[in-house]
Amino acid sequence: MATNRTFTMIKPDAVQNGYAGKILDQMTEAGFKVIALKYMQLDESTAGNFYGVHRERPFFNDLVTFMTSGPIYAAILEKENAVEDFRALIGATNPAEAAEGTIRQRFAKSIDANAVHGSDSDVNADIEGSFFFSQFERF
Ligand code: ATP
Ligand code: MG
Fold this sequence. Notes:
four-stranded antiparallel sheet, 139 residues, binds magnesium ion
């Protein structure tokens, strides 16, 4: 069942480059409502667990190093058809392949530092949101 919620992170490159405000603005302009939001820095074990499905991939260590390199924004967003529509809004994993006007096309430089995360399924959106936020942090 679709939950109409997705989970996102504004990644360290985008925060470092000063794009967090513009990216949040593009998300809300596209109709996503912020249900939960925090500014934080991931530690190695949290980032490793979050991207645990990629543990055997060659880029895993670089991914964890990058995701722990500076603060991020974590958020739960709500909109009809949230997961699919949000993946369309952020664009392809590799910003060089991301469609014109998408968040990754506008704000990301490389596949390693690609500005934002978006959940890839309703099940994962729920798992990821609960990984970061308690029921008292959602509005
Ligand atoms: P995310 O989960 O961060 O939203 P995604 O779902 O578009 O990204 P995944 O396949 O889940 O892509 O990969 C997670 C992250 O691992 C990507 O955002 C990217 O930074 C990195 N990554 C994926 N594939 C590669 C690759 N071939 N080379 C380098 N890094 C990669
Ligand atoms: Mg992914």
